[in-house]
Amino acid sequence: MQSTFLLRSALAIVLLTHGVPGVFDGSINDFGNLYLNEVGFAPFGLYIAWSIKISHIICAGLLLFNKYIIPVGIVTIFILIAGIILVHAPEGWYVVGGGRNGAEYNFVLIAMLLTVMFPDGFGSYIKKISNTFKRK
């Protein structure tokens, strides 16, 4: 079993539980039409909202099967940072307790994704890439 399986599984569960319910309860449409369109993404808000949720579902599956981890991380981190900027930062840091709807949850998810993307640290990844460009 890979050393990141537990973390990848936890991330997949979070992405699925964040993505799937909206498919059935209409909240994706509301997020696209009533929020994204209103903050300047009109007329694409609905498409962006659906793209985000579909990416969560696809990325969850890829995390579970340990496939395309770097692209999964890049896409998901981009979405999480956009969420921090647009939705969570104006509400503050805390999700509960000291506030509501804050950025701390996204921050932890980003740290988890970076850990899964680079389980041996950034240095070993950079070294691996540089080795591919060296002449033999």
Describe the structure.
- The two termini are 33 Å apart.
- This protein has one domain (5-133).
- It is mostly helical.
- The mean pLDDT is 92.
- The protein has helices at residues 5-25, 27-41, 45-64, 69-88, 104-117, 122-133.
- The longest helix is centred in the first third of the chain and has 21 residues, at 5-25.
Number of strands: 0
In total, the number of domains comes to 1
- Biggest beta sheet attributes: none
Mean pLDDT: 92
- Radius of gyration over C-alpha positions, nearest whole angstrom: 17 Å
How much strand? under 5%
Count the DSSP helices.
6
From the spread of the alpha carbons, the general shape counts as globular
| Percent helix range | over 70%
Structural features:
mainly alpha; 0% strand; 6 helices; 136 residues
Give a summary of the structure in a few sentences.
The chain is mainly α and 136 residues long.
Topology of this structure?
Elements: H1 5-25, H2 27-41, H3 45-64, H4 69-88, H5 104-117, H6 122-133
